[in-house]
Amino acid sequence: MWGSVALLALPVALQMMLQSLLGMADVLMVGELGPVAIAAVGLSAKLHFLLLVMMAGIGAGASVLVAQYSGAGNLAATQRTLALAVMVGVASMIPFTLLFLLGGETVVSLINPDPEVVALTASYLRITAFVVLLTLLSVVFESGLRAMGNTGLPLLMGAIATAANVVLNYALIFGHWGMPAMGVEGAAWATLIARGIQLAGILLWLYLRSHHFALRLQHFKAALDKDALLRFTRFATPLVINHVIWAVGNATYHVMTGYAGTEALAVMGVIVPIESLFFSLFVGISNASTVLIGRALGGSQTDEAWRLHRFFDQLSFGLVVALSAGLWLSRHWVVAIFDQLDAATAELLTDTLAIFSLLIWVKVLNMIRILGVLRAGGDNRFCLITDTIVMWVIGIPIYTAAIFLGGFSFLTIYTLMYLEDVAKFIPVRHRIGVRRWMKNLTLT
């Protein structure tokens, strides 16, 4: 059990950490070009991130079904599911690819009025338009491989892509090693080439090894079955909507935080990458729980699925308590890393990290139970309804009211960000307890 969890969780956690570090590296490298360049790359990254969230929903749908079909020993169904995910994903992303390629300036001008930022962002989006399709294919194949227990290849290809991106950034942004100095456009070309390398590496490995996910024409023909297509679409649509609602909600929190003052925004700017690194391990654990519980349910082993749920619940709680305690004790040293902050902001960051350490266990347990356990049984509708209600009816309205009407301190406002997790803790725990999520999706 421990070996299986480590093999499934740690590579995903490491890949998440790599992605977080790459985001920081991109900002730092482009930062030398000035604020307009930072704004353009940052705005482009936000647009790509929103699409990445949609891709993650499609990948999650494929992952759950592949895990269950593999537990049932139905190899042909895993191939059909992956082919369906590829076709649905590509069809969903083609309009955005064309929009970035042909209408970037129109889109960006609706978000940012600065003509210089608009022009630079549109140029970046034109070059990276096909990154949308390359990333979609990588996400789908990685999801399928992880559901079958292969987390090493996605990690390896992700690491190679990250290294290539950083090296190409250095060469193409600043004109090193005989390359032209292309500035922001150089960063765009670096991203495009790195994502191409990532997908090529995955496909090369699959086809050279004649892996059963080396999809061929007959697999796509089989996936064109009307019933199978409707079934996958019905299953994946709530996941995609849920991911988008979550992304927009999180963006709303950060936009609202800007109205709490520059000091608050500076603290949030530091907290976000710390949160990303902290959550990396638990994203890996939730992936492991989805795969193992999904396989058990696909094999109609409900007692084993329940045992796995209890195991992951206890493992996650123990780890989050230990890591939170470590962060609490070391928060002064963590703040010292950001030595460019003034004394007042540093003190505020220290207190914010203390609140983070005290409350993060609620968010982590919800994440493991929703992303790992409930979705392993395909309980997507409950997850969508619960997340939507607590975020948009409870969390965001109260948070916004506290900023504009309450005159509260930032520490109180930051604490309110955890209100939605507290609100859904009991419903999610109850849902798991009544065991309605324990469904064998291969039989329906």
Description:
With 444 residues, the protein is mainly α. It contains 16 helices and no strands. It has helices at residues 2-30, 35-71, 75-102, 104-109, 115-127, 131-147, 152-174, 184-208, 217-223, 226-257, 262-298, 302-337, 343-376, 380-406, 410-416, 419-434. The protein starts with a helix and ends in a 10-residue tail after the last helix. The mean pLDDT is 84.
Structure in a nutshell:
The chain is mainly alpha-helical and 444 residues long. It has 16 helices and no strands.
Give the number of helices. 16
Helix content: over 70%
Order of helices and strands, N to C? HHHHHHHHHHHHHHHH
How does the major sheet shape up? none
Rounded mean pLDDT is 84
Pick out its properties.
mainly alpha, globular, single chain, 84% helix
